[in-house]
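G., the chain you wanted modeled:
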Amino acid sequence: MFLEQATPSTAPELQAVILAGYGNRQSCSSVLRLYPLTDGGAVPKALLPVANRPFISYQLEWLENANIQDIIIAAYPDARQKISGFVQKMYEGSGVAKIQIVEVPDHCGSADALRSIKSKIKTDFIVISCDLVTDIPAHYLINSFRLQNPAMTAFFYDAASLEASAERPASKDDSQVEYVGIDDKTSRLMITASKAELEDDLDLRVSMVSKFPVIHLHSQLRDAHLYIFRRWVLELIAKNKNITSIKNDLVPLLLECQHRDSVVKREGIDKLLAANTDPFRAAMLLSTSGHETHDNTVVCNAVVYLEGFTARGNTIWSYSELNRHMVKMHPDERIPGSAEVSPKTQVGQDSLVGEGTKIDERCSIKKSVIGNHCKIGSNVKITNSIIMDYAHVEDGSKLEECVVCPGAKIGAKSQLKDCKVGAQKILEAETVGKNETYADYLSDEESA
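Predicted structure as tokens:
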């Protein structure tokens, strides 16, 4: 279903699950893609700042605007307390939403996380990743879910929404390219495949082609990791322990069920469908509106967003670009009153300075985000960079396309380009680096 086909309506009762941090056999690479930003437990992924706001604040705001008030945040053990502190501060005394922060096993997959909190999910539910920022109106997704009566509604966006203004194309990273097949007539999602995981050509089953002979294959679309599921899908996850990842295990299984009855019976999905009749579907069967209904069949539909803005910050590059994009969205909030910026310093219209930050004279800040309570010395040049909270950049340093994590210190007259500096890391004066990672916690890949 494309954006223009949807119309506003009242949202049904839905719960929401925000996946605030998890890791498994598939997601280990995603952890490395953000190394060292979340390494060592200093900053959970859900609390990484985007335009000086924690990631998770964007998902909470989106759900609040959708009037979804029953929210579960699934967090791994090391992150739970820090996320809880932020949520309590954000919603203190408001009573706007019921938010549960639930600990899930460390190193578990996204589907494993859902299995571990199964008892807390009582209705059909939304699953959203903590690294997603989108402006799609929620009712477009919810309407599609209601009208199509699917097992799953998945949200896809055009990758160009982030890449269009970038100085270097994200498409150079083939691991991010996906093939997405959609039956345009019914909006059914039929194919999802990562280019990086394909050994050769894309294989299509005869059973699928015979049932759905016309499928539009996209290569520019990306999975937003935002899904709406029927409650019975959770029963499927609970009984099949081989389903550990939503994207890599659950979604392919549900897609296969659309054209292979043998899989539906093998997995016991026919019994789950029979035991979970949908009152709305029953009403639509009696309707003369012409909407297509599906009786005891598995349906997966796609909502594609070609307008507005959607992006995931799941790599260093996309995270940096996402920061710069969000700064442009709030040009009047660049420098708060609590910041001390020397009159002789230039802060570009494309930059953001955090609360309580001090920037000395003769500095140049361009296309950058400076966090809260940072100290920037004199004669410092910062371009296309992200400086997180409580970081210190001493006099005469030059940073270009860098990410500096909380509490790090860059010694005087250092020159860094395309570098990542881990949390609390101290670099000596006159450090010169290009494409370097400075961190106390080295991954196996970095230390090899």
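The first strand starts at residue 15 and ends at 19.

Shout if anything looks off.
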